[in-house]
Write a structure and sequence with these properties.
Rossmann fold, alpha/beta, five-stranded parallel sheet
C-alpha cells in the first residue's frame, strides 16, 4: 500500500514519537506536516490541504478531542481524523460519534497505524469522499 501523496498531519507533544510516525508515512509515500499541540495543529490544518490527521489526545495547549471538534465543524471537514491515546479519555463510540475515523490505543505499532490510516484514505477515495 502506498501513500499516493496523501497529506498527513501528525500531532503529538512527544517530539520523538511525532518524528517516528511522520517518517513512517513519508516512507509510504505521503507528505507530512507536524504539530506539537492541538492549537498549533489547527493552524497548520487550516492553512494546508490535509487528507488525514493523526493526533494524540492528551496535550497541553489544545487536546486532540478539541482538535477533532474544530476540524469537523469547519468547512474542510472531509479530512479523516485518527485519535491516539494511552488513557480512557473518550470511548471508541463517542470518538466515532464526534467524527473520528478511529480511536487507537497506546502503545501501538507504528507500521500498523500507518496501514490503518492509508487503508481508510484509500477506501474514502474510492468512494469519492476525499476532496482535493
Amino acid at each position: 500500500m502506498t501513500g499516493r501523496n496523501w497529506n498527513i498531519l501528525v500531532v503529538d507533544d512527544e517530539p520523538e514519537l511525532c518524528e517516528l510516525v511522520s517518517e513512517e508515512f513519508e516512507f509510504a509515500g505521503c507528505q507530512t506536516l507536524r504539530a506539537s499541540s492541538g492549537n498549533q495543529a489547527l493552524k497548520v490544518f487550516l492553512s494546508n490541504n490535509i487528507d488525514a490527521v493523526v493526533s494524540d489526545i492528551r496535550m497541553a495547549d489544545g487536546n486532540g478531542i478539541e482538535l477533532l471538534g474544530n476540524i469537523k465543524s469547519g468547512a474542510k471537514s472531509s479530512a479523516l481524523v485518527f485519535l491516539v491515546t494511552g488513557f480512557a479519555d473518550i470511548t471508541k463510540e463517542k470518538a466515532m460519534a464526534a467524527g473520528a475515523a478511529a480511536l487507537i490505543g497506546k502503545p501501538y505499532d507504528i507500521k500498523h497505524l500507518c496501514q490503518v490510516v492509508l487503508a481508510a484514505l484509500e477506501k474514502e477515495d474510492s468512494e469519492g469522499r476525499i476532496k482535493k
